[in-house]
Every structure is written in C-alpha cells, then in structure tokens.
Amino acid sequence: MKNKIIYLTLISISLLIFSCETDTKLGYNILPEDDILNFQIIDTSSIEVYTLLEDSIATDKVNSLLLGEYNDPIFGYSKASFACEFGIVEYPSFPEGYTIDSAVLYLVPDTINLNHYGNFSNSQTISVHQLDSRLNDTISYFSNHNTSDFLNGELIGQKTYTPDASDSLIAIRLENTLAQSFSNLDLNVSNDSFKNFFKGVYIKSEAAGHDGAILKLKINTESLIKIYSHKEESEYIFNVSANLNSNIRFNIFEHDYSAQPFYTNIGNESNSQDTVAYIQAMGGLRTKIKLPFIKELKKLDKIAINRAELIIEPAPTSITYEKEFPLIDNFVLTGVSDEGKYYLLPEYITGNNYRSVAYSDGSYKFDIAGYIRDILDGNIENNGMFLFSGSGATSIKRSVITSGNNSNKMKLVISYTKL
Predict the structure, then answer these.
(1) Per-residue pLDDT tens for 1-10?
(2) Measuring CA to CA, which of 35, 125, 174, 386 is 20 to 30 A from 313?
C-alpha cells in the first residue's frame, strides 16, 4: 500500500472540474517523513468561500473592555462600548470631620498587548453614564445589546482624551453630586446592597467624524472609582472596584459595512467571494468554507485519510493595511450543522488543532482529517465550516484571507492510504 498526497487547489467561485496529476515534492515540509512516498497534484473542483455576519456573541465575564470608534479603510465603521458594575473592596469609613472632595474613575489601558485600532492622532470624548437599574446576574449579555436604555442614565462624567500608547491610566473626574452621595453609605454595607446604591456605569467614546480609535482596557486592581476626602492635611480615599468576580461587565459592538464594496455579498451563499473574504472580531464577520469536491474522493475506492491540512492565506498587505491593522492572531474552525449552527470538529475534542498555528509563519493551518473522514463515512453532512476570530469578545483585530481565485490560494493538502 503506498501513501498518496492529493493537493487540492481550492477555487472560490469557479465550478470548473479538471484534473492534472503530477509527481512532486509539494507539501514535503508539512508532512511526516513516512508519508513522503509519492505525491500527486489533482486540480479539481472549487472550494466555496462566503463572508457572513457573525452571530451575536456572549461578551460578559471578560477581563478586557473595548472602547471607542473608528473607520477602517477595508471594513468600514466599528464602535465598542461597555457596561460595568463596581463593588466594594473595603467598608466605607469616612473619618469624622472629613470633607468629600471628588470621585475619579480610572480606566487601565492594556500596554502589553496591541491596545488600539484606528487613528490615535484624533481626540475623542469619553462619556460615563450611571446605570439607573441593576444588571441581571441570571442572564448572559451579548455583543449586540441595545444601548438605548443605558443612555437614559445620568451623565456623571466626561473627558476629552487624545490616546497615547504609553498611557497606563485614564482618569475621568465624576460629578461632585455622585461623590457627595457616598457619604450616605451604611458603614456595614454589603456588596449586594452597594450595587443597589451604585448600579454601575455605561461608558462610550466618540471622535469627530467617527475617525478615532478603539482602545483595549484591562480589568485589574487599578480599575477603580476613588472617592477622595480630606481634613486639613490628611486624606482618606474610599475605593470601589471593577475587579471583582461578582461584577457583571460586558462589551457591546456596532458595525456598519454598508459603504464597503463587499457589502452586497455578505450572507449571499448563491455568490461566493471572488479573490478574498473578510473576518472581523467584535461580533463582526465570519467566513463560511464549503468543500463540495469531497464527494469525489469516494470515487477512489476505499481510502484511509491520514492527514488533511487546510492552509488559509492572508491577502497581500497592499490591500489589507496589515501594518496599521495587525491581523487576527488565531482563528477557530468549526463544522456547520444541518440547522446552520456551530459544532466542534473532531480535532477540537482530541486536541488543540481547532486553533490555527501562530500567524508568524505567514498562514493559518488546520488539520481537519477527522472532519473529512466523518464526511466520507457518512457520519455528518458536508455542510461546510465556519471560520472566525478565536477571541471575538475582546479582540479588536480583523483579517482579509484569500480564496481560490487569488494568486496565493487557499489550499487543502490530503494524505491518504488506499486500502
């Protein structure tokens, strides 16, 4: 029995079927040595690639918050805002005779990971609204949550801010009336009672012409509202924190693709993408990949699939602005059920191959051998796969990937043994 490699060049729109078999060393660097016995290239029918809107994604229980808005030359307009509870980390104990001076909210930019997308040169206005009703800890919150109710809450702080990548804290002075209200707190207040008193905040940020940036913020021990008070030369500070496990916090995202050339093709599965497809985190866009030619493998009599590597290539930098907008670090690949829902590939259950390798090698690679086997064995329907950002609730990145009509094509390399 000799091993064979089928190198399937995947073409996104064309449904032409033609074959050309050639011995080659192609794929040598991605296959085990045991498989390198004989190679064949078979250019066959298409892979179909579609850009779809992402389903709303759960964004609660996150430790990174996204804030701002920007216009992307490829993807159009995006906006991120968030709601967040605060809780007590100490009992309030304003000493007798102390005067409450002010309340200041501290946001913590992420200075380790990529912390912004967009235009840092423009100032933006950060607005803080006090929630007028408590968030519900018995439900999940999603990326498409309606923000209109939050805007009914009192505006308790505003700051015009020009982002700087080196900033470690953003301080926003809150209204004095809020600061003064903290003097009414019971000295033995519980966290639950405190959240009835101060229900949390909704924070948004806007720039002139919407030409700003989205900032990535951390939740840590410095994510505080500080209530400052003094008596003569002495100072007492009462802290309330966003960094408690019991606090609800979630990101909210908005996108507008209507002015972009690819807009009319979004969700249209009767017309696959031409040379590129689009993926965006923040509950934005995903890609659907169909492999209609898999049924042709059944004509090879009985075979055992040893390896099936899907290689996804980023589009050229000249059309993606990769320098200004770094690409998504990792993708997740799932199957598509008969109802159009996600399901985990066999590789997800048995290992970590559902995530791409690091983008540092210039491509994203998935071993989907188990998925191909299940299709050939009739265990699942060949409904295609969804490809999307691996951290869509907290990532600000996006990617343009090639389809089969690009000069740097998406590919599937299959190693099989004929039985």
Answers:
(1) 444 444 333 3
(2) 35
Count of C-beta atoms within a 10 Å radius of residue 309: 18
Dihedral angle over CA of 117, 119, 125, 130, nearest 10: -10
Q: Is the distance from CB of 288 to CB of 352 less than 8 angstroms?
A: no
pLDDT in tens, 106-117: 999 998 766 789
Query: Does pLDDT of 40 surpass 70?
Result: no
Q: Are 25 and 61 in contact (CB under 8 A)?
A: no
Hey, which of 36-50, 97-111, 352-366 has the most confident mean pLDDT?
97-111
Model confidence at 62: pLDDT above 90: yes
What SS3 class is residue 111?
Answer: coil
- Report which secondary-structure segment, H or E, holds 99: strand 99-109
Whether residue 409 contacts residue 10, with contact meaning beta carbons closer than 8 Å, is answered with: yes
Q: Quote the tokens at residue 133.
A: 């009703």
Does this model's pTM top 0.70? My answer is yes
User: Which residues 6+ apart lie within 8 Å of 308 measured at CB?
Assistant: 367, 368, 369, 371, 372, 412, 413, 414, 415
Structure tokens belonging to residue 250: 């979630």
Reported as a single tens digit per residue, the pLDDT across 201-214 is 999 999 999 999 99
Q: What are phi and psi of 124, to 5 degrees?
A: -140, 155
- Count the Cβ atoms, other than its own, within 10 Å of residue 85: 23
Strand partners of residue 37: none
Residue 167 carries which side chain, given as an amino acid letter? D
Q: Is 266 left (phi over 0), alpha (psi -120 to 50) or beta?
A: beta
Q: What is the dihedral of CA 401, 404, 409, 411, to 10 degrees?
A: 100
